[in-house]
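Two records follow; treat each independently.
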Amino acid sequence: MAVAKKKRNTEDIAFVNFKKKLQKYLNSYQVKKVEKAYSIAKDAHSGQKRKSGENYINHPLDAASYLADYELDHETIMAAILHDVVEDTNIGLEDLEKLFGKKVSELVDGVSKLDKINFESKEEADAANLRKMIMAMSNDIRVLLIKLADRRHNLSTISVLENKKARRIARETLEIYAPLALRLGIHNLSTELENLSFKTYFPLRHLTLVKSIDKARGNRKLLMSKIQSEVIKKLNSESIKSITKAREKHPYGIYKKMRSKELKFSQINDIFGVRIITDSVDFCYRALGCIHNLYKPIPGRFKDYIAIPKSNGYQSLHTTVLGPHNLPLEFQIRTQEMDQLAQSGIAAHWLYKTTSSISKLSREQQWLNNLLDIQKQSGNPTEFLGSIKDDLNPGKVYVFSSKGEIIELPKKSTLIDFAYTIHTDLGNKYSSGKVDGEFKPPNTILKNGQRVVIEKSEIAKPDPSWLNFVTSVKARTSIRNYLRSIHESDAQKLGEKLLMSSLNEMEVSLNDVPSKTLNFILSEYKFKTIEELYVEIGLGNVIPKLIALRMAPSFKQDTSKTIYDIEGSEGLVMSYAKCCHPIPGDTIVGHITQGKGIVVHRSSCKSIRHIKRDKDNIELRWSENVDNFFSASIMVEVENVRGVLAQVSSVIAQSNHNIESVNYTDTHEAGRNMMVFIISVKSLNSLNKLIDKLNKIKNVYRVERKRS
């Protein structure tokens, strides 16, 4: 009885303290609304216990109290208190809407949907949950704030869970929720989530680092006190109003730096630093000058995040100097509002009703809308989750657009990343790019401060090879989405062509096929339209001859095969085998590869002979209209003398053939080398003429086309 009374007193004290927070910034009507929400939640959760043994109501109360520290509006506070009642009690969303209004019920619904997400699952069902998460965030960012507060309290009591489940939650937090909090600029919360998760996921590493930090703190306590005194004295002498604080890097931040840069703890120099908070931006830059007068700045270690804020709105001056005893020391200099925004991020919007905080909110909303676009273009939940993780990577580079605007990109971004960041259409129609006035290849990695200009062409289109070097999430998803749509379009055209050829062989037109028969075939293969059937035929998932026989069952099958004409422009669903490099003039055969369409081989290719499924092979021939370039492989055996590669390359270039690649192989004969060229040609005839020219070079022993 005494224990139960003690628990009630503890809960009452927690609620009284919570109410005091609310009364500081909410009016009496709003406070009463929150009290009502608490009363209903407490009754609904009555008798329910958490695994820690405490009454369940403590959990939503803690989440709401944490959000009250940021002075969030009363609807958010109410939703935080009620966020578990729909899932765990008999109260429904309709009841919440009647009692507290539509907005509160929508917030609770959004948080409930987030709780259903399992980030480790690869099932298609999770696609819907992922979509709901981003939809909820983009519709109202407060949903995510409630979820982050909920996750924070869960982590504080995570020790009661079994180890496997606790580690899964900790890893999920480190990969998703802590980076999300940081991306929203809520540094305090991000740090707390990271350290709680770090302690659970890597307990021994956490303990070791904490002990090392404690030891280092004791050793540097007097030194840091001396530095602070010197800084305060210098700033006062210049009449700069400021507050000077010692700061300390948190354990997980140190661990990440040790791991990413492969450093020992003793090699981390910025564990301790100084933060200077001033009254104005002018004082910030004046304070910077004072610090550089006191201590020698380290070249390359100054960052101006006031002029160029981080993606989450963070603003501050950072400089690293050599302090007493040549100790590297980082200074952070910012205004009071910048400091509040740095710690509270988007949550500070409710604390600071200023133009800067409101514009920051719109930036975060734009970022969430971009995530929604990425989700729409992603092929599956796993791809989307990977995109989220990539987007949360804090490494950035800043460049200037043609209009002088500052564009923020992920580190190692290229010209293609830049183009897609400006606009998807600019990326899709990219033709060339200039960096600081010079034309550069599309895979050029951009550096801070460069000026970038992109030129586009209406006939240009994305190149699949761009996926090998793009860094940004938007570029990668946009390219994949375009290729996916083109791939399907090409597959439909090819599939229609193959089916019509099979029907023509039987002297049957598609118009002759009864609609009942056509509908039955589509239903049997689970296609809604004949266009879907064309796509699957083009992708090699359905054999056109079999469909044609089903459409014309009275046709007596001929033993001869249908021969299909190809023009070399069938797009991404028809590819040319790299083992034998077929070109116009060769006798060719096609192999239907499931999901990839038709792969064209030379009929003499050894690899095609090993494919026993003859039903997957189709006879092909080149159309008379072929006018494209194709890759061909030739072997050139040469004398091992200086300049021979230049001789061979010159003849190839003068013959209007492009060299795609060249490799050397051993001939096992002294004084000789074998060079293997991949070149672009239009036909077998043009290739043979080139081989004749190469054979006439003085230092060339023989030239021949490479066999498969």
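The next record belongs to a different protein.
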Amino acid sequence: MAFSDKSKKKEKSNNFRLKLSLFVFSALIFGYIVRAFYLSFYSDNLKNIAESQKKTTIVLKGKRGEILSSENEILAKDIPSYSLWINPLSISKDERKKEAVLIIASKLGIKPSEIEKKLSKKTHFIWLKRQLSEQEFISVSEIIRKYGLSEQIIGFIKEWKRFYPYGEVTAHITGFTNVDSEGLSGLELYYDDYLKGGKVKINVLRDALGRIIMKMPPEEPPKGNIIKTTIDMDLQLILYKELKEGMEKFKAKGAFALAMRAKTGEIIAAVSFPTYNPNIHQEIAESLRKSILANFYQTVFEPGSTFKVFTIAVALEEKIVSPDDVFYCYEGEWKFQTKVINDVKKIGYANLEQIIAYSSNICAAQIALMIGKRRFWSYIDKLGFGKKTGIDLPGEERGLFWHYSRWYDLDLASLGFGHFIATTPMQIIVAFSAFANNGYVVKPYIVKQIISPFGDVIAETKTEMKDKVFSEKTVQLMKKFLRAVVLYGTGKRAEIPLYLSAGKTGTSKKIENGFYTQKYFATFLGFAPYDDPEVILYVGFDEPSGGMYYGGEVAAPVFSSSLQKYFAKKMVPPPAESSDIADNQDKIYPSYTSDFSDSLTSSGSYQGFSSSQDRNNLSLHDVLDSLQKKGKPIVIRGYGFVQKIEEREDKIMVFLSPQ
């Protein structure tokens, strides 16, 4: 009995242990199942951590579209390049591998602190350097072979690198991209959505032994679209060379040249100095670009005397003046309110043609005052000043042009000769297009077509005429006046033999800290051939020195030489017959005494006028011949139309008023 009881107790004990073991085992199995279920379906964070330890995704971009000239020369294209990656986790624990990578880094110009930071990353993939040059690729490949580094430690991935064949010649047009093939400036930025290629993701996997497995795509990403510009590289290269030589000759701070098809608005050349090489490292190129001020659509400055053409044209259009009207130029010095306005050429009387030809600030100011604030503002607004022209480039400036409600009379007078307004070269050349298009202003553009990788034209720019600002009569008169500038005025050096030209010089003082300085912008704006304008060209130099700073002696010769070479290069036949003007070349009216300090007394009106109605809207031209016959000095007071004439014993007083 005792044995039997003992045996039963032992059996019960064994059963209990077995059940306990089965329970514990079952519980553990259940726990593992629950944990696995949880990890599989509910713990995304843990899943992501696990995935990140064995997989890295990188994005490769397709070939960027080319940028072409009007005649299909390549201005920007992608060329093959190789980017270098490393596996930090496989390198950091091996001194020999680390030594090799440090040597490679030094060859690539990577700082030791930067490479140490990369090697400390807990990852199996990181870029060491993107878009190696050919020499860098060869040098790195030799080091890899020397140290026997495997493809699981370091390797290359083929990418595309942007290349600009003309470099700094077209830098301000093309702009450039960053290492990720994203446009940063110029056409590259403005048309980035069209130019950029497609994207494809590559998984960088690691097997159970930690070895890198690169899963490459079955085909390359889609290519970007092609941009065909309006740029004529013949003229672009001519202007680049001419401006560069001019910069050196006149020791200028900067320069620009902007050329546009007179009747279409196509920008056919655009050069700016200083410039930069967009092929160098992107970070350097970006810092250089930001430091550059000279730019044909972003530089803002007072246009100076080139603006007088709009003052005269508005006065003609509004019939405030006529071609035969004569104005008194006060011998080159006229005090208006608190300002003394000066002329370079000190003359007495001048008609409209001579005012433009000899660039009289005094007479331009008088005419602006006769136009009036509101009327003048409406025309300048229609010409596009104070607004963006709409050129297809990023960051275009609006310039500075206040509403007429904020003008004083002195501001209006200053505006007449190109002060009290700040413009861009692009705004000036667009407004000037009215004189080549029967009074219409044309919209500028620089991209003609967008072409798909398969050759289909998906977008095309058409010529767009904006407002009609001036009548054909006004335009023909203005062309005649602009021709006089080149024939016998301030722009003689802008003449182009056989083709003939017309235009206007400009010399404006620069403003610094709110004050005028003795630093200048010297410009010439014109078109050729004269009878049927083909090209409008605007040339400017920023701070020319060495004693020469007038637009007629600095910018005009570049205008002439550049277009002469361009027409010869393109074999443009000169006009068979060209109309010309030289009638007023020697007809400057005689100078007479101007008495600013004279105390006027009323001695009766000149007997040639019987009533105030007879004097209404008579110009100096209407009375000058008869007054000259008196043989006495003629003294002019005021500006505008003749309001009163007094004959004294020793002189004749003529009182003018704008109304």
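Discussion point: The chain has four domains: 2-42, 56-227, 233-569, 592-659. How would you locate this feature using only the token line?
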